[in-house]
Amino acid sequence: KKSLGNAFLKVKRNNKARLAALVRRELGVVIDPASLFDVQIKRIHEYKRQLLNLLHVVSRHQAIVADPNADWVPRCVVFAGKAASAYHTAKAIVNLIHDVARVVNSDPRVGDRLKVVFLPNYSVSLAEVILPAADLSEQISTAGTEASGTGNMKFALNGAITIGTWDGANIEMAQSMEEDNMFVFGLRADAVARIKALGYDARLHVEENRQLRAVVDAIGGGEYSPGEPERYRGLVDGLLNHDTYMQMADFADYVAT
User: Fold this and answer.
1) CA pair distance 171, 178, nearest whole angstrom
2) In sequence order, what are the beta bridge partners of 223?
3) pTM of the model
4) Closest Cα partner for 126 from 8, 13, 27, 7?
């Protein structure tokens, strides 16, 4: 059993080195193959919640800066995917990923403890390099919105652990491999419907959670877009006033999980 585990880890390490080489070649960013590769690759869409992932990245950036000597597990967050050409909010999210990456990757206080990369021109060939290198698979769509795709299964079959909502094929996977082997978080579909029916106020979650407030203030205040401080005001206002996909409600549980 031990030799099988070691052989698997060796294969995984080689695949991570291959992705790190691709990232260096394409983006000029050096990432450590020994760090945790935290991966979200799928269409850029509000319901798939790349933005929630990014809120966690900003929160982690702030936490590392506040306590650089804590025992941080070095983490590289990898995004890839395409946005529809006229989908303004999705394009803004892609922009924000790039802006956060630029700030985080060049912050000397952070060093190798956190890196963020967005790989362009997502394709099957690119997926073939990313999937076997992933340690953590992000399957974080709002419960009740995700069609039962197979991307999450491809990650799992390549030995990545999954953090996900109780939704779509995540449920089938959890039932096959036991829920204990998946990191499940967030509101379930019935709770989402119930909260929406009662009247959901995203701002309450921001007011109650200091960590979340700091993240929203940093993005809305231009800390990641210093040349254009108002760039993400619209994105943040959308989160505070509409938040159709319950990102504010799921933030605390997501970060904790």
Assistant:
1) 10
2) none
3) 0.96
4) 27
* Beta pairing class for 36-41 and 75-80: parallel
Residue 243: helix, strand or coil by DSSP?
A: coil
DSSP 166: S
Q: In terms of DSSP H, where are the helices of the chain?
A: 2-27, 50-66, 88-105, 124-130, 151-157, 168-177, 189-198, 202-208, 210-220, 233-241, 247-256
Which tokens in the block code for residue 257? Answer: 């999980």
Residue among 53, 27, 31, 56 nearest 42 (CA) = 53
Instruction: Please state the separation of Cα 11 from the chain's center in Å.
Output: 24
The number of angstroms, rounded, from the C-alpha of 36 to the middle of its chain's C-alpha atoms is: 13
DSSP category for residue 120: S
134 near 42, Cβ under 8 Å?
no
Please tell me the distance from the alpha carbon of residue 91 to that of residue 64, in angstroms, as a whole number.
28
Burial class (CB in 10 A: 0-12, 13-18, 19+), 71: exposed
Task: Give 190's pLDDT tier (boundaries 50, 70, 90).
Answer: very high
- Give the up-direction half-sphere exposure of residue 228: CA atoms within 13 A in the CB hemisphere: 7
**Quick one: which of 46, 17, 12 has its CA closest to 161?**
12
- Gyration radius (Cα) of the chain, Å: 18
* Residues 6+ positions from 87 with CB-CB distance below 8 Å: 44, 45
Encode pLDDT of 114-129 as tens digits: 999 999 999 999 999 9
